[in-house]
Amino acid sequence: MAEQKRATYSWIDVVWLLFILALVFLPPINEYHKQAILFCIGTFQFFEGRLIARVPRRGRIYSVLIKIALATLLLDHTGADVAVNSTYWPIYFLPVVTAAMYFGPLGTLLWTGLTSLVYCSFLIPASWEYDIGAENYSILAIRVLFFFLAAMLVNRFAVENREQAARQRALSDALEETNRQLRRAEAEARRSERLAALGQLSAGLAHEIRNPLGVIKGSAEMLAQKLQGDQPLAAELAGYISSEVNRLNALVARFLDFARPLRLDLQPQQITEVVDSAADSVRAVMPDAQVSVERNYAPGLPLVCVDEKFCESVFSNLITNAYQAMDGHGTVRLSATREMSNNVPGVVVAVEDTGPGVSREMREQIFNPFITSKKDGVGLGLSIVAKIVDEHRGWIRLDTESAKGARFSVFLPSAPPSQGPAKT
Question: What's the distance, Cα to Cα, between the start and end of the chain in Å?
């Protein structure tokens, strides 16, 4: 398709007007019809870009037709005896060149043929009054052939220019996509480095904390047993110590889950079954929540290589976050589609809610440890989720273009074709 002409003006439009103005002051000078037609040609040429920008497809056709009509009027008013002999006959190059710029080779030939027929139509009234000899027919044929030569020459350069522009746009789009992937890879690499360093620190810290916690818990339980009858208040306080130690132990366990290397048992799985299982488990934990779950799975999805237990944990965490973000009232949308990521085929699973969404300040660091919007949260849930997905050689992203609510997308690579479904 022809490249659209810009609606803005440039210096070349001024040059066009100067050429048209020069024709105005050439003989016949007192022919006001000629000057009016030339004014219309110059004005239309100046505003042609706006017409093409407003109606790109039909505007090109209108442009060629209007120029043919104006050229025909000019010859009709400037031909002394016979319009076909007007010295302004080269004005027909204007619609011919315009067609060559806007259309392909076939369209250029058709429009040039129409222009030539209109020009040759001046022979009809001339043949009624004059005897047109073979020499005049030869001159006319030469002029028509020059129309076609000019049209095809301009069209060749116009087509090459459009093809080169298309290649440049494709190259620019590919470069932009490569830059986006590079920025994502750099961000994921930085996040992985931070997680690795923090994981080592967490593992050592959790190990050092767990041992004294065990001593405190055992001592508190023994103290509660001995003081239960004699000093009930002290026994109650010892019970508080024991329950708080349990809570700290759970927190330490989460630190260890975050720091501990994963041992994945990868098996080909139908990912939609894993997602459904996660949704059912969350529903069982929150049976009173007024949340509807919508599923939209593309047919014929390939199997993916995942550890079913860890993968279910990923989607359980995302769906639980969606429930909590909506305060137990709203809709969770689950979808699964095929996708290629860095030339790797796989499946993208999206978990979307109708809650308030993620604030702009938290979007860039949502997967970092200890980043949370929950009052009683630790901020390790999504970090652990991201770690599990990374170990599966996939990726997880927060859709920043979501108008309302939060939308998390998880990509998991397809299982090799040689592998069949998992045994049950």
Answer: 55
Those residues whose C-beta lies under 8 Å from the C-beta of residue 167, and which sit 6 or more positions away, are none
DSSP string, 74-138: HHHHH-SS-GGG-TTGGGGHHHHHHHHHHS-HHHHHHHHHHHHHHHHTTHHHHHHHS---HHHHH
The alpha carbon dihedral of 362, 363, 364, 367 has a sign of: positive
Task: Tell me which residue has tokens 């920008």.
Answer: 53
pLDDT of residue 262: 66
- Residue spans per domain, the chain: 11-132, 195-259, 267-413
3-class secondary-structure state, position 392:
coil
**Residue 297, C-beta contacts closer than 8 angstroms, at least 6 positions apart:** 272, 334, 335, 336
Q: How far apart are CA 222 and CA 234, in angstroms?
A: 12
Q: What is the largest CA-CA distance in the chain?
A: 139
- Within 10 angstroms of residue 175's Cβ, the number of other Cβ atoms is 10
Angle at CA of residue 181, ends 408 and 174, nearest 5°: 125
Q: What's at 162, amino acid-wise?
A: R
| pLDDT tens column, 66-99 | 999 999 998 888 876 677 778 888 999 999 999 9
Reported as a single tens digit per residue, the pLDDT across 288-344 is 888 899 999 999 999 999 989 889 989 999 999 899 888 878 899 999 999 988 788
DSSP conformation class of 286: -
Per DSSP, 367 falls in state T
Provide the token pair at 392: 């599966």
Q: Quick one: CATH architecture of 195-259?
A: Orthogonal Bundle (1.10)
Mean pLDDT of 103-119: 93
229-253 burial, b at 16+ Cβ within 10 Å, e below that, comes to: eeeeeebeebeebbeebeeeeeebe
CB neighbour list of residue 349: distance below 8 Å, 6 or more residues apart:
271, 275, 315, 334, 335, 336, 409, 410, 412
Q: Give the C-alpha separation, 148 to 296, whole Å.
A: 57
Spatial separation of the C-alpha atoms in residues 327 and 322, rounded to whole Å: 9
The pTM of this model reads: 0.50
Q: Pick from 278, 296, 314: which is nearest to 391 by CA? A: 314
Rounded CA-CA distance 156/64 in Å is 18
Q: Which CATH superfamily is domain 267-413 in?
A: Histidine kinase-like ATPase, C-terminal domain (3.30.565.10)
**Token output for 323:** 């429930």
